[in-house]
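4.2 Preliminary Data

To establish feasibility before requesting continued support, the project team ran the inverse folding procedure on a target of 192 residues. The structure was first converted into the token representation described in Section 3, and no sequence information of any kind was made available to the design step. The complete token record follows.
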């Protein structure tokens, strides 16, 4: 009752700001991504409506976003192709990283359905988009020398301290070998 009487005494020029319940970081990012995509459709020549949007339009959008990327992706003829940490700068372009594109598509796919789009017509889940993401992932893995394989579970450090001195520590055994190199070659004290 007090709240109502205080509001009645306010002048009409003051506004009451109602704060909506705070959304998660994911929800905020999804909303921003959705607004960006809708703006892209409005600016498209000719302008596109959401129901007429296809997987091909989503691919155009992803290629458009590449110009704002921050990840150096080496060309196949670049001297640093396949090196994860190149020793010098090169003229190769900055692109969107595969992980960013994959997360973006996931958010847009969910936003499409939340905004009334039928799941069976979702352009973000089209085969063309899935194939494009796979190609980007594979090429970027080769260009940067980074593997996108599943990560192994971490070994408990207490176990490595109780091993006898004749065996190499488990942590060194589980390091990923370089191409053509055995796992045991990483450990200098091992006999093969």
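Position-by-position output of the design step:
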């Amino acid at each position: 009752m007090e709240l109502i009487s205080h509001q009645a005494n306010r002048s009409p020029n003051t506004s009451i700001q109602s704060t909506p319940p705070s959304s998660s970081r994911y929800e905020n990012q999804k909303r921003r991504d959705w607004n960006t995509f809708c703006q892209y459709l409005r600016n498209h020549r000719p302008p596109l409506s959401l129901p007429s949007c296809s997987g091909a339009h989503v691919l155009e959008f992803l290629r458009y976003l590449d110009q704002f990327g921050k990840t150096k992706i080496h060309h196949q003829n670049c001297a640093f192709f396949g090196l994860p940490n190149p020793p010098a700068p090169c003229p190769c372009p900055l692109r969107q990283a595969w992980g960013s594109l994959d997360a973006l598509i996931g958010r847009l796919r969910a936003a499409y359905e939340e905004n009334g789009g039928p799941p069976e017509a979702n352009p973000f889940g089209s085969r063309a988009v899935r194939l494009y993401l796979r190609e980007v992932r594979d090429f970027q893995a080769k260009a940067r020398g980074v593997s996108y394989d599943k990560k192994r579970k971490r070994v408990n450090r207490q176990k490595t301290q109780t091993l006898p001195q004749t065996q190499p520590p488990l942590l060194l055994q589980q390091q990923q070998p370089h191409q053509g190199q055995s796992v045991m070659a990483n450990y200098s004290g091992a006999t093969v």
